[in-house]
């Protein structure tokens, strides 16, 4: 017979039948052993089903001068027309006199997983003769989204799921000059990297030779290190050794030299995304041609949840602490 009371008089484990002894014992960190299958791993399936039903949000911002292919790059990332519409057909697009922020929201679905995607564009950034404080509207917008989330969070009766409009990632487009980073680039990334995840990329990298591209990337990395600018993935937030090893390989290749294209072409009997030139077709998803696959993997396939976690646990948390300290002052 079996008893639910602990037997303290005997220090030796009770004899087990041969059928039970054949079961695999799984040691746990606490020192206990599971004799056979319990079903704890089913919680992963439960989380997956729940996430697929509710969906999730992802908000991305693209910043850079006009003509660097920001809208095309976003369309290439998600393989659909998700960026803002520049203008009506036949009309000339005018450069705004000040930095304006335009957000477009779409619900995209892949294999049953729904994602509410918000793309925020910044037309007018860096296009003026005097670009002094042109980053102020962007900083104001990011902080406004933190404030909106904070106001919902501190309500007495708050929603079960707070709408998340916080910017999870900011892709900054560097002009392919082949020289050094401009003071505008350095100042923007220095200010924005403190409140949002900044991912720098070299726009239209097909205008540079492979040697020019390698030298330009090295100079950018030196500039970032000299000015103590921490872009995503930040080294300070790597806690797990495996994550640190993966992120070290990513940091060696930042900024990514990317090429965007939203048109398909026929190459060796296959339809590929690319840009057609006189000497051939630049395949966007070919690692030998550009580093767009690395950017896509970072933003979507490998680090999307990490971008959201760092936004919530680091950037939003620092904003929340600062705001609550301000409200508690006499």
Automatic annotation (TrEMBL):
Residues 54-326 form the Septin-type G domain. It is found in: Cytoplasm, Cytoskeleton. Residues 1-28 are annotated as: Disordered. The keyword Disulfide bond does not apply. Its main location: cytoplasm. Residues 1-11 have a biased composition (Basic and acidic residues). PROSITE patterns: G_SEPTIN. GO terms for biological process: cell division. Keywords: Cell cycle, Cell division, Cytoplasm, Cytoskeleton, GTP-binding, Nucleotide-binding. One of its GO terms (cellular component) is cytoskeleton. The keyword Zinc-finger does not apply. One of its GO terms (molecular function) is GTP binding. Pfam families: Septin (PF00735). Belongs to the TRAFAC class TrmE-Era-EngA-EngB-Septin-like GTPase superfamily. Septin GTPase family. This is SEP12 protein. It comes from Aegotheles bennettii. The lineage of its organism: Eukaryota, Metazoa, Chordata, Craniata, Vertebrata. The gene is Sept12.
């Amino acid at each position: 017979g079996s008893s639910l009371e602990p037997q303290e008089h005997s220090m030796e484990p009770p004899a087990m039948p041969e059928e039970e002894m054949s079961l695999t014992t799984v040691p746990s960190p606490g020192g206990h052993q599971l004799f056979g299958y319990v079903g704890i791993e089913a919680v992963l399936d439960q989380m997956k089903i729940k996430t697929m039903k509710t969906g999730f949000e992802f908000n991305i911002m693209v910043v850079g001068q006009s003509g660097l292919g920001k809208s095309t790059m976003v369309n290439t990332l998600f393989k659909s027309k998700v960026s803002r519409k520049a203008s009506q057909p036949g009309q000339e697009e005018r450069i705004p006199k000040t930095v304006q922020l335009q957000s477009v929201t779409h619900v995209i679905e892949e294999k049953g997983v729904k994602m509410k995607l918000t793309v925020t564009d910044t037309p007018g950034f860096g296009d003026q003769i005097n670009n002094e404080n042109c980053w102020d509207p962007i900083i104001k917008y990011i902080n406004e989204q933190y404030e909106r989330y904070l106001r919902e969070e501190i309500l007495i009766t708050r929603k079960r799921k707070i709408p998340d409009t916080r910017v999870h990632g900011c892709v900054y487009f560097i002009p392919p000059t082949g020289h050094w980073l401009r003071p505008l680039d350095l100042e923007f990334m220095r200010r924005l990297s403190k409140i949002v995840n900044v991912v720098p990329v070299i726009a239209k990298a097909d205008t540079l030779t492979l040697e020019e591209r390698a030298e330009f990337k090295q100079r950018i990395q030196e500039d970032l290190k000299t000015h103590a600018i921490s872009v995503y993935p930040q080294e300070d937030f790597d806690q797990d050794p495996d994550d640190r090893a993966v992120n070290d390989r990513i940091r060696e290749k930042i900024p990514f030299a990317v090429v965007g294209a939203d048109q398909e072409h026929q190459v060796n009997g296959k339809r590929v995304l690319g840009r057609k030139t006189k000497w051939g077709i630049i395949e966007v998803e070919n690692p030998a041609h550009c580093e767009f696959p690395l950017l896509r993997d970072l933003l979507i396939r490998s680090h999307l949840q990490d971008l959201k976690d760092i936004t919530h646990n680091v950037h939003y948390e620092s904003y929340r602490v600062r705001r609550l300290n301000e409200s508690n002052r006499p």
